[in-house]
Amino acid sequence: MTLLLFSLYFWNLILLTSSHPNIKCLVINLEYVNCTWSEQGVQMHNYTFESMFSAYGKQICSQYYQVNRVNVGCKFPYNETQRFNELETWLYNKNGSLVAKQKHQLKEEVKLYPPYNLSVEAKKDTELWLYWNVTQNKNCIDSQVRHRTENTDWQNKEPRSMNQFSLPFPSKKRYEFQVRARIMSSCGQSKYWSDWSKPVYWGHSKPNNNTESPVSSSVTSLVLYAVGATVMLVILSCLLVHSERLRIILIPVVPNAGRNVSKYLAAFFDDYDGNVDKWLSISKDLEKGFKPNFTERACPVREYRIGSQSSSDSGSVLSMPTDMSSDYQCMSYSSASTIPGPEETSQNQPLSPADNPV
């Protein structure tokens, strides 16, 4: 019986102890303090929080964190000079009774913001230089760099400088860099690293988050191109059917040459009775230019035939001219003509055989 009573008492003590919320406090970037508390299961009580640094007065929480309208944490301002002071916290019920009381040493409970403004520079193709910024004093910051190539395992490095890191003899692959920071040991080292910064990349290729294979992506692109071409053809067909003006612009009408020729020939015979001059509308000056400006007249032409005659005394052969009338006509120009007239013809008649010297 005594053992049973002792067991019940011990069990109730454990339940009472475990039901008290546990308070945890963390200094965020040396700017403010976050204190949170929790209970086993779903928290149903709305506690009131108070805090006090040693040598400072007690403060009521001015900004609560809530979940389902229940207070689960408190945010209050922080002075960097208070970091080495002890922090004391209290939780109270609605009726004002004390629920929990704790003391905290915040020297190691500091978590910084991640570094930002990361940049990578290549110098003479032999080194990669990584630069970044931090929000707090660089003289009290430890940094850690990690890098990898083509989604391989991360390699962690401790740079000598607080805000720069060099990687010698990089390859031609794509590099990914990230940096995190914390308070260094000479300034009261924190046991919390900041979150990793946003990654920065160096190299020709970019990070590929697509899990599809190249074959499936190419097939998808081909299907999209085919669908796009089909849609364009359908749109053009609709435009051609419903828009006569657009159809004429895209597909101009070829003129009917036979119809135009027959129309012109009909005007030639019907309107001008086959008169080419009137049909072509030739000017009078041009028409006069085609008329001849010379006259023709008939002139006699004499033809000579050479005959042979034998002589017993001389034994020589003489040629006798024979006058033969001809129906040939000579032309003489009224102006600028080079054909000789009748007088010139009579004067230039050839000599008779008697006058011709042997």
Describe the structure.
By secondary structure, this protein is an alpha+beta fold. Helices cover 24% and strands 28% of the residues. The strands form 5 sheets. A 5-stranded mixed β-sheet has the order 5-6-2-1-9, with no helix packed on it. Mean pLDDT is 74; it is low at 1-18, 207-215, 310-319 and 321-358.
Write the layout of secondary structure elements.
Layout: H1 2-19, E1 22-28, E2 32-38, E3 48-53, E4 59-60, E5 63-67, E6 70-77, E7 86-92, E8 98-105, E9 110-111, E10 116-123, E11 127-133, E12 141-149, E13 155-157, E14 164-168, E15 175-183, E16 200-202, H2 214-242, H3 244-250, H4 257-270, H5 276-280, H6 284-289, E17 302-303, E18 324-325, H7 342-347
Parallel strand pairs: 1-9
Antiparallel strand pairs: 1-2, 2-6, 3-4, 3-7, 5-6, 7-8, 10-11, 11-14, 12-13, 12-15, 15-16, 17-18
